[in-house]
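Dear all,

This email documents one entry for the complex benchmark we are building for the journal club exercise. For each entry we list the sequence lines for every component of the assembly. Then comes the predicted three-dimensional structure of the complex as a token string, followed by one or two observations. Please use this as the template for your own entries, and keep the labels exactly as they appear.
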Amino acid sequence: MSEQHYCYKYPHPAVTADCVIFGFDGTGIKVLLIQRGIEPYKGKWAFPGGFMKIDETAEECARRELEEETGLKEACVEQFYTFSDVNRDPRERVVTVAHYALVRLSEVKGGDDAASARWFAHDEIPALAFDHDRILRMAMNRLKERICFEPIGFELLPEVFTMTELQNLYEAILEVKFDRRNFYNKMLKLGILAEAEPRPANASRRTPNKYRFNAGKYAELKQKGFRLEF
Amino acid sequence: MSEQHYCYKYPHPAVTADCVIFGFDGTGIKVLLIQRGIEPYKGKWAFPGGFMKIDETAEECARRELEEETGLKEACVEQFYTFSDVNRDPRERVVTVAHYALVRLSEVKGGDDAASARWFAHDEIPALAFDHDRILRMAMNRLKERICFEPIGFELLPEVFTMTELQNLYEAILEVKFDRRNFYNKMLKLGILAEAEPRPANASRRTPNKYRFNAGKYAELKQKGFRLEF
DNA sequence: ACAAAAGTGTTAGGCCTACACCCATGA
DNA sequence: TCATGGGTGTAGGCCTAACACTTTTGT
């Protein structure tokens, strides 16, 4: 069927939602990309994304794409910018509402088309379709800004993690190095971490302490007008 | 003509750009609203906005709206969120890319339909059309976040201003009070202000010092990895 | 035995905050 | 003369940043 049923008095652009999916493997930030099987940009890599249905919001659309590729229904998804350059898609005028999602790698199952989906480290990103390189740059910048003020990093970590993993995460996102002792002190002083299990007495000193994010404490502190900063 | 010339295989939403225009009168933040002359929401107030043309970006559309209402071609305009609730417009599905603009009140001429456009203080906002109350809330929040890290406040002030005006601006946007001396010291230490004119010798001590924003110095500091904060 | 990871405290300097008085003007 | 607005400096506390050694384990 190539009939054109939906008619308007004025031209309407198509609207899509794209979803930049970030993960963390304990060392570096990863991005989930999908290799396009069709033109345009066949063979190039792109973010999961698709046309917004007429009865869903952009965010619902982004979550749908996320679930299709990762199986995840619940995740931190946030809109960050809408790209509307006139020629960003060669087929027709397409405006895309870009989102990023933060997921735990351990919870991601291979999606339907796992064959064509792959995680890439941020320094191994291949050539991207459309204006997706620009979208990625903006997503990373927004992530950097965001993590300075809200503890979104915890969305990327397993429920229980070590201080070193947490530090690696912050260093990977912000592209800086922190002094280990200062990072420990700062994080512990903030009061948003709980010790997951007191280190077993028999464990060696080499065994790292495990922590979990204390969401309740964070909410409480935020209420009091508290500001997270790095 | 009600002919429907533009046809698509799938339904397309309409896309609009809205522009929340902020001004500052030396004491408080003002927002420019337009009273709607047609249904829906006839008589209610709304932000300038309109349908995006097929050959312009959302930002160009927002700037066009800004110019129509204020005569300003150059201004700080920034996209901040895209609203896509399914029923936000009763006529058809409309996705709007919301922007805010920062303008100097002194440079604004009454627009074409000045009769129906008015500046409102943020505590006198009337009932708004569509989901514009939500849009306004989000715009104010974004402005608060933004002014903490970039000197966008200067877009709202005349070229030459007093320290008290600057402090009033920050206090109005952030809804807090600062200690006057601390504010002076902090601002002067930042090094992004220049004295506009050395206070004339004959002027009384009551005459306030005048400053201007030193954009060059700011760019230089930012380059060196400098962080503005409040 | 050597390299790599984890845990731990102190100090100095800078920044933030709180705070009070004087002068000039206009009402 | 009184209220208002503008200018100015300091001291204490807190946070930040810089810094080294020990233990343990795996190779």
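Observations: The two ends of chain B are 55 Å apart (CA to CA). Residues 219 and 225 of chain B are 10 Å apart (CA to CA).
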